[in-house]
Amino acid sequence: MPKPLHILIVEDSEDDAFLLLRELRKGGYEVTSERVETAEAMKAALGKGGWDIVISDYVLPVFGGLAALSILKESGQDLPFIIVSGNIGEDIAVGAMKAGAHDYIIKGNLTRLAPAVERELREAEVRREKRQAEEALRRSHEELERKVEERTAELVRSNKELEQFAYIASHDLQEPLRMITSYLDLLDKRYRGKLEKDAGEFIDYAAGGAAHMKTLLNDLLVYSRVGTKGKPFELTDLNISLKSAISNLKKRVEESGAQITCGNLPGIYADETQMVQLFQNLIGNAIKFRNSDAPRVTVSSELKGNEWTIRVSDNGIGIDPKFFDKIFQIFQRLHTKGQYPGTGIGLSICKKIVERHGGRIWVESEPGKGSTFCFTLRVK
Ligand code: ADP
């Protein structure tokens, strides 16, 4: 079956063009063609489109092979360009190939033409497929970037909303809560012992609930203020932040007999108060979620590229990997208040602080084998 081939021939000699076409027909092509011999005619022909290949003489009376090659390039069409010419010498031929011609054939050796055309058509096909794949990749990359941008904007908006909600809720709920607590106090003072026996117990439950709610609201307020009430970053010695955190936890450290080992930590640009809060939450948890052994907590740092990784490791109860993401979400806890006290806000505050400083936070752990909370902070 002859293969159809639509050729643009840049050639002043009709006879040479005829020989060329005959050679290609012999090679199994069903050829259609147009012959041009000026730049204008070539541009006009290219404009019509539909070409499979361009075959050009090297020296024409008013035109040349290299000029023809530039016209083809300018047209943006990636067609095979083969020079068929009288003997032009090796240097010129090499120069033409360097300029982008795909092959060079001497008019006296036209038997090479059909195989060369076949090879160049195949290669052009490969180039086209590669371009298509690259284009598809670029499009899917753009699509991905657009989606990431959309999601980020959505996340920023929903974080802002959550922050605002947390602030309003924690702030506005404090007043009615104070009212509940005061009247419970009053009930307790005036009527304890005077009512039925159960009544004292009920008052205690209600007061316990109100106290927990107070802690919840306070934590929620702290959470909502990480972004809005944060201070500007200043050069902060993390060794000092860590010391302050441990000193704030003094009572719990002493009661639990916790041993805290601190490696040398870096100085970085950060919100000092938030760094104290971060260490305090992580070390507080390391002490709280202990097993029967006395807590052993180690704080260390490692520099990789332009970021520090800080690690807080403990020998506590550990965490099942399926909860690694959940625990950083607000109000998410893995235990009842009876097992371990808490509000489930501590780690979400840590996450917000670390992210405000451009870092990431995660946990590495196995149930029963202790946990290591890691976070990164930028060097600058
Ligand atoms: P809270 O401590 O008030 O429960 P957090 O947000 O600080 O809230 O922690 C969320 C949950 O993550 C905890 O309830 C606990 O299940 C788990 N967790 C946090 N730190 C540790 C730790 N060091 N060891 C084991 N579990 C931990």
Notes on the structure:
By secondary structure, this protein is α/β, with parallel strands linked by helices. The chain has 3 domains: 3-108, 3-Layer(aba) Sandwich (Rossmann fold), CATH 3.40.50; 157-226; 234-378, Heat Shock Protein 90. 53% of the residues lie in helices and 18% in strands. It has 10 helices and 12 strands. Strands 2-1-3-4-5 form a 5-stranded parallel sheet, sandwiched between helices. Strand 4 (81-85), helix 4 (90-99) and strand 5 form a beta-alpha-beta unit. The chain is elongated and about 125 Å long. The relative contact order is 0.07. The chain binds adenosine-5'-diphosphate (ADP). Adenosine-5'-diphosphate (ADP) binds next to helix 9 and helix 10.
Helical run tally:
10
The poorly predicted ranges are none
Please tell me how large the radius of gyration is: 39 Å
Going by CATH, the architecture of the largest domain would be 2-Layer Sandwich
Number of strands: 12
Reading the helices and strands in chain order gives: EHEHEHEHEHHEHHEEHEEHEE
Shape: elongated
The percent of residues in helical segments reads 40-55%
The neighbouring-strand order within the major sheet is 2-1-3-4-5
Mean pLDDT comes to 92
Bound molecules: adenosine-5'-diphosphate
